[in-house]
Design a protein that fits this description.
By secondary structure, the chain is α+β, with helices and mostly antiparallel strands. Among the domains are: about 80-175, no CATH class; about 185-269, no CATH class. It is built from four helices and eleven strands. Strands 2, 6, 7, 8, 9, 10 and 11 form a seven-stranded mixed β-sheet that branches. A two-stranded antiparallel ribbon has the order 1-3. Strands 4-5 form a two-stranded parallel ribbon. Strand 8 and strand 9 form a beta hairpin. It is elongated, with a radius of gyration of 32 Å. The termini are far apart.
Length: about 270
């Protein structure tokens, strides 16, 4: 059984001190027993060599845990990881996937999957499930992904997720082949522009507005966008509204031009 030691470091935001297994633990605990020999009806198997099984006599991996289906309306827990509860604790039951290089702490590389589930009545921060990575040559691990207990907010990278009104927070950006935005409110989509009751701003008034405010009506200013960002659904709705208004303006100009042409043609006669 490997013991662990922490290197002293001052972790930055989103990072925590790396954990390094010692090369030669002070004591070794060897557990072995042929359960099936002593207890032939046992569902477990712990041989000296080969795969160990809990709930199965034919394990297909170094450790396999199997349990009956049970009540399908409830969680079927196969493994439970727990820390002793502490009121001010930040205990994180964690599973580590290591490269196994214990020749030097700096060579150690690993992924961890864990959950901060204990106490924390002192710092009052949300509990979280997270995935971290420690690269060779570093003495801290980096949190790459987390889901916190405050409304189930999801964070990817080093970004502040404690902002109300949002569920997903991503550092740097998102590259996607397709994005679909659901529009919950029909008032955010402006088919009413084509109804007889809709009142458009005259071109003269629009010209005055642009000269005074340096942006189109209903379109957010640069300062607003830099501060609050852009709601893709609402922004696309506003752009659609401007296109529809512009289309009607073009149609009106075409009608006026046709009338002028007809009048000029009549004068020539």
């Amino acid at each position: 059984m490997l013991k662990h030691q922490h290197l002293k470091s001052t972790p930055s935001k989103g990072k925590s001190p790396a954990i390094f297994p010692t090369r030669r633990p002070a004591t070794k605990n060897v557990v072995y027993q042929y359960i099936d020999t002593t207890f032939p009806n046992s569902e477990n198997q712990f041989p000296l060599n080969g795969n160990a099984g809990i709930g199965t006599k034919a394990p297909q991996a170094p450790l396999e845990i199997m349990k009956g289906a049970g009540n399908v309306s409830k969680k079927n827990i196969l493994l439970q990881l727990s820390n002793i509860w502490a009121e001010g604790g930040q205990n994180e039951p964690t599973v580590m996937f290591s490269n196994g290089d214990n020749s030097d702490p700096k060579n150690t590389s690993y992924w961890t999957v864990g959950a901060r589930v204990s106490g924390d009545n002192v710092q009052k921060t949300p509990q979280s499930f997270k995935v971290c990575f420690k690269a060779p040559g570093t003495d801290t691990d980096q949190e790459y992904f987390s889901i916190n207990s405050y409304q189930g907010k999801v964070k990817i990278g080093n970004v502040n997720e404690l902002v109300d009104g949002y569920k997903l927070f991503v550092e740097e950006g998102i590259l996607s082949e397709k994005v679909k935005v659901a529009v919950k409110n029909s008032e955010d989509w402006y088919d009413n522009v084509f109804t007889p009751s809709y009142k458009r701003m005259s071109l003269n008034d629009l010209d005055s507005f642009i000269k005074q405010y340096k942006h189109l009506p209903d379109v957010p200013t640069t300062e607003t966008v830099m501060k609050d960002g852009i709601d893709l659904g609402k922004m696309n709705g506003i752009l659609l509204k401007k296109i529809e208004e512009l289309t009607l303006d073009v149609i009106d100009l075409k009608k006026a031009l046709d009338e002028t042409r007809a009048e000029l043609k009549a004068l020539k006669k």
